[in-house]
Amino acid sequence: MAKTTAPTTRRPTLPAPYTPTLTSRFHELISACFTGIWVQTHEPHEAAREITDLCRAENWRLGIWNCDSGVQFPVEQIAIPGVTETQDPLAVIRAMPQVSHGSGTTVLLFENLHRFLGSVELIQAIARQAITGKHNRAFIVVLAPVTQIPPELDKLFVCLDHDLPDHAQLEEIARGVATQDGELPDPDELPRVIDAAKGLTRSEAENAYSLSLVRHGTLKAETLWEIKAGQLKKSGLVSIHRGTESFDQLGGLDNLKAFCLRAMRRQSEGTVSNRPRGVLLLSPPGCGKSQFAKALGNETGRPTVVLDVGALLGSLVGQSESNVRAALKLADAMAPCVLMADEVEKALAGSNSSGQSDSGVTARVFGSLLTWLNDHESDVFFVGTCNDASKLPPEFARAERFDGVFFVDLPGRDQKDAIWGIYTRHYGLDAKQARPDDANWTGAEIKSCCRLASLLDVPLVQAAQNVVPVAVTAGDKIEGLRQWASGRCLSADRAGVYSRLEAGSGGRMRRVVRELGVKQTSDFSRSPPASR
Ligand SMILES: Nc1ncnc2c1ncn2[C@@H]1O[C@H](COP(=O)(O)OP(=O)(O)OP(=O)(O)O)[C@@H](O)[C@H]1O
Ligand SMILES: [Mg+2]
How many CB atoms lie within 10 A of CB 53? Predict the structure, then answer.
């Protein structure tokens, strides 16, 4: 029969100031007698090492179980017959009372236990142990790459994230790997290298540093970018865009370009409260939103991290929320960076449904994204793009969430001339030849016309016969978008608020002067460019 003594709790003995590392958070939870702890980690060995150090320092009994080697006791080097070699997690949970030692604390770590949680017996045994563990201070700790807690155990477990290494930890690893003379870069260059390693796990960073040493004899950011791009691709949630786009290759959008460059000029020096958050770009398809986000990274010397909004909505219930958390954590770890989320409205379309259609998954994903947009303290500049404002939940675009919500209209005459210039040069075409009627064309259509002229070796006017402007196929939608944006969005081309009335039917509007506060009326295009 279980003893009926009151739960034994201890006051945390951590030194101030409080630093939320895995060790300190774990210590708190054990002190407060949380008997079920789920640690989400991609580095179970690293997490186990940190917990082992803590258990050794605190004189707690620690057992580490996995299905391959049974239970190991790394701190005390003991063997408990019937437990040590046991590969069946149910038997280990049932034997926990024997493993506990007196009035001391016993921690049993289970690696990848989520793989076994289809068993009702195991769930029942864990539930019982999580309750009785409060009396004999026996703790069940799961180390797993995902958080998948069965509903029966939901209230008995608390979740911890094992964070990716921060700047100081990555530097420590770099110094541990680059030990020979000349292997460590100059003090000026080192922070760039460490920034490039952000987002990697400890062992990935160690491997990437080693590869850089083998290739170049020193730590180089380029090698780290290459490795990181590959690692992030595996996650399927975010990828790094490493292109050569620049603002020179993007005709028009002068206000938007100047606004973002100015906002990001001192981004890393600013305090958390005055750091820029990002912008939301609304426009018909093919007007250069994605191109802008990619070029912004290059212009400000930051990587552009692309968030795959569609992949965030995983097919398994419960996976989407952890996906979005994982993706935003990766973005935080990649700071300083530009985070681009294309066509946000598609993924967020169901968030108004209050769970009617998808058990509320999109609503919760959307909530996580909103919370992150409001609260994130990392140096991440968010660029969201959207083609259909009617699908966008209203709270997404409310003031303060973004530094600016911009409308990118179909290009006007000057912008179209600039875009023709860019692509006739790019495709080696005669810039003086006659141009087709480009009324209501987007930048993408001008590019497509130039590409076809080059590919088919025909004049632009002839190539244009193969271009069907989106304004023809989706004219009503574009008009609806303009109406929505009018008075609500900033103009991407000129300082001020976009107005449909002044835009006319053939292209972009004239400048609108309306007092809406400093940010919205300043002419940013006269500002000095951002320092690279
Ligand atoms: N203003 C512009 N200057 C130069 N190129 C442009 C411009 N607008 C669009 N383009 C070109 O058109 C192509 C499509 O642009 P992009 O993908 O950025 O459009 P988008 O607004 O993101 O479209 P969608 O809404 O369909 O995602 C790109 O290759 C881009 O270079
Ligand atoms: Mg796009």
Answer: 13
The verdict on the CB of residue 286 being under 6 Å from ligand 1 is: yes
- The CB density around residue 360, as the number of other CB atoms within 10 Å, is 17
Reported as a single tens digit per residue, the pLDDT across 489-505 is 888 988 888 887 665 54
Give 407's strand partners: 282, 491
CB 385 less than 6 A from any atom of ligand 1: yes
Statement to judge: residues 52 and 144 lie in one domain: yes
For residue 345, give its domain range: 247-410+520-526
Same structural domain for residues 205 and 269?
no
Q: How much is the pTM?
A: 0.70
| Shared-domain flag, residues 140 and 185 | no
Any residues with CB less than 8 A from the CB of 244 and at least 6 apart, and which?
Answer: 298
Distance CA 418, CA 414 (A): 6
Pocket of ligand 1 contains residue 147 by CB under 6 Å? no
The CA 387 to ligand 2 mean position distance, Å, reads: 9
294 CA → ligand 2 middle, Å: 10
> Is the distance from the beta carbon of residue 444 to the nearest atom of ligand 1 less than 6 Å?
yes
Each residue's pLDDT tens digit, 338-359:
999 988 877 666 555 444 455 5
Looking only at Cα atoms, what is the longest distance across the chain? Answer: 94
Question: From CA 426, how far away is CA 418, in angstroms rounded?
Answer: 12
Q: Can you give the pLDDT at residue 291?
A: 92
81 in a structural domain: yes
The whole-number pLDDT of residue 310 equals 72
Q: Measure CA of the first residue to CA of the last residue in the chain; give whole Å.
A: 69
> What's the gap in Å between 290 CA and the centre of ligand 1?
6
Task: Give me the torsion for CA of 224, 227, 228, 234, rounded to 10°.
Answer: -170
Question: Beta strand 36-40 with 70-72: parallel, antiparallel or unpaired?
Answer: unpaired
Highest mean pLDDT among 219-233, 313-327, 401-415: 401-415
Sequence-distant (≥ 6) Cβ neighbours of residue 110 within 8 angstroms? 65, 66, 89, 92, 140, 141, 142, 143
